[in-house]
Write a structure and sequence with these properties.
The complex is a heterodimer of chains A (296) and B (293). Helices cover 59% and strands 0% of the residues of chain A. Chain A is mainly α and 296 residues long. In chain A, helix 6 crosses helix 7. By secondary structure, chain B is mainly alpha-helical. Chain B is globular. The chains are: A mainly alpha (296), B mainly alpha (293). At the A-B interface, helix 11 and helix 14 of A face helix 2, helix 3, helix 4, helix 5 and helix 7 of B.
């Protein structure tokens, strides 16, 4: 009888305490809270790619309305329709609309906003649809910390992200460089775009304060390469062996080595083929002699 | 033995052209001493490691490169191995130079090129093309071996110096503008490829895949070459050796030869011709279009 009573008490406890504990956890879990708040949004936007990526992103604890404060202020037609038919006017309209969201990013990320203010990206027609927006580099729903390999600004992805606006030849040259190759293979030390050019505080090369200004370049290289040699600034950067005009010394070195490679291949191909043919003639000769002798 | 074959045999400078044994059994003659073998093993081992840990960086954009890098413990580990192997390679070169210096008077200097090498090269091609019956009268080292030896000097210098300045760009930049370092990187990357082709296609044929030595010549670890091989491939050196033994080269009987398993296998030779042909076509298809890019 006694044992049964204990069991009964335990059952009562479980049935009453567990739901209460769950409710308590819900209240303290901002992710679950955001998910609950977003449930209404997702009744009309179910299964959208952004809905899933957002739930994994660094902003997963935020409600949709944290960024999309004015859900009624969308431009005529949906953003998606504009993106599907990206006429010049459509893009302008879409970007004009997302400027509002961009301002929202900066209310939380004040430090980034301050750094950006005087930067090359911050001064590109600020406030207009051509201005660089946070989402251009960081993505909109799939935002991750830079240390997360999924982030658009992670070490491995940042060159591609910059290359979306900047000359793709620069990103290509970077990929072939030692820095780019090392980063691709997982080096945690080799430089990415932002290590030399800066992040939010990026400045154009002509600016005297720019980390890649000719006067500052030796010091920038010396952050990793020990000594600020003036020679670090001498020579074209971001050029490949294929760009004869910008990187002639590289181009001509590559062509010389290409000639050596082809001579090397030819020398070996000719000698090995002739030697094997000679060996074959020898073997045939031996076979013929052995055959003849076996008849003798 | 037919008259024709007897003539052939005499013309090839051999008492016995074929596999029938005659004369005494083939002796083993020292070709490389322990120090030379040690230098070679040090060089070969370090170069193999350097290629393994360097090519993923050269070809970082290829899908296999990150796989190899992961297998080698990640980029930082792989790159450290590369630098250790580079140090060993340079040490093998330094060891060789010291060895030369300490043996300066004892060396026969047979590895130095001479005018005879030009004649040997001409004779060799005539022989390979079947225009000439007698094999070229090669000495201790053939003109190809001498060329390879000098190419290793050039290769270690180019790879060692460019690699050093690329590893320590702050030292390189003390001497030259950055674009010179960029040129050194192109040189480092492509000289590595020249080295790889020379070894993986050229050198490995003569010492591993040649039907008479497959799967491997024994010289690199035993240090000895069979009397038969020496007589056939280095006849002038063989005569010199006979003389050193107090024998008269014109009277000495030719050593017997037991052919290796693959030496006279036309199947083996045909398969090799196909493989080397395919490799050559692939290399040309890869690099010739780059001339025009």
């Amino acid at each position: 009888m006694h044992g049964r009573f204990v069991l009964f008490l335990m059952a009562v406890c479980l049935l009453t305490v567990l739901p209460a504990a769950r409710a308590q956890a819900d209240g303290e879990n901002p992710i679950a809270e955001a998910a609950a708040a977003n449930r209404r949004c997702l009744t009309c936007h179910p299964g959208e790619p952004f809905a899933t990526t957002y739930q994994e992103s660094n902003h997963k604890a935020l409600a949709c309305v944290a960024c999309h404060a004015s859900v009624h202020g969308q431009p005529a037609g949906s953003v998606r329709a504009e993106a599907a038919a990206p006429t010049q006017g459509g893009i302008a309209l879409t970007r004009e609309w997302s400027l509002g969201i961009d301002r929202t990013c900066r209310t939380c990320h004040e430090d980034a906003d301050r750094a950006l203010a005087g930067s090359a990206h911050g001064t590109v027609a600020a406030g207009s649809h051509t201005a660089v927006q946070c989402a251009d580099c960081h993505g909109s729903h799939a935002i991750f910390k830079a240390s997360d390999p999924r982030a658009a600004v992670s070490r491995r992805n940042v060159a591609t992200t910059c290359g979306r606006c900047h000359d793709p030849k620069i990103a290509e040259a970077y990929r072939y460089s030692f820095h780019g190759s090392a980063v691709k293979l997982g080096s945690r030390r080799a430089a990415t775009c932002v290590d030399c050019h800066g992040g939010h505080d990026i400045l154009p090369q002509v600016s005297p304060a720019s980390s890649v200004n000719e006067a500052n370049l030796p010091g920038t290289c010396a952050r990793c390469h020990v000594k600020p040699r003036a020679n670090f600034a001498r020579g074209p950067e971001h050029t490949t062996i294929h760009q004869r005009s910008t990187g002639f010394p590289l181009w001509v070195t590559w062509k010389i080595f290409l000639a050596i490679i082809l001579l090397d291949v030819t020398q070996n191909a000719v000698l090995i083929t002739l030697e094997l043919l000679r060996q074959w003639r020898d073997a045939s000769h031996t076979a013929a002699v052995v055959g003849r002798e076996s008849h003798d | 033995m037919t008259e024709q074959r007897a003539r052939d045999s005499t013309a090839r400078g051999l008492e016995q052209a074929d596999c029938r044994p005659s004369g005494h059994a083939s002796r083993w003659i020292i070709r490389f001493n322990a120090q030379q073998r040690l230098q070679h093993i040090l060089l070969a081992g370090s170069i193999m490691v350097l290629i393994l840990t360097g090519f993923p960086i050269k070809y970082a954009f290829e899908p296999w490169a990150p796989v190899v890098t992961r297998m080698l413990g990640g980029f930082d580990v792989m790159f450290s191995i590369h630098l250790v192997a580079a140090t060993l390679m340079i040490l093998s070169g330094v060891y060789h130079l010291f060895w030369i210096a300490f043996n300066f008077r004892r060396l026969d200097w047979a590895m130095l090129p001479s005018l005879k090498d030009l004649r040997d090269a001409g004779d060799h091609f005539a022989y390979l093309l079947g225009w000439r019956q007698a094999p070229p009268d090669f000495g201790r080292y053939t003109y190809l071996e001498k060329f390879e030896y000098l190419a290793v000097f050039y290769g270690i210098a180019v790879m060692g110096l460019s690699g050093f300045f690329l590893s320590f760009p702050e030292v390189g930049a003390a001497l030259a503008p950055r674009w010179v370092l960029d040129v050194l990187r192109v040189a480092h990357s492509n000289e590595a490829l020249v080295c790889f082709i020379s070894i993986a296609v050229g050198h490995s044929f003569w010492v591993h895949f040649h039907p008479s030595v497959f799967p491997s010549s024994t010289v690199w670890y035993k240090g000895t070459i069979s009397e038969h091989h020496l007589a056939e491939e280095h006849p002038a050196e063989y005569r010199r050796w006979l003389q050193s033994q107090g024998l008269d080269p014109s009277q000495a009987p030719h050593p017997a030869h037991e052919p290796t398993r693959y030496e006279h296998s036309r199947l083996f030779i045909t398969v090799e011709l196909d493989i080397y042909g395919a490799v050559a076509v692939w290399l040309y298809a890869t690099f010739v279009p780059m001339l025009f890019q």
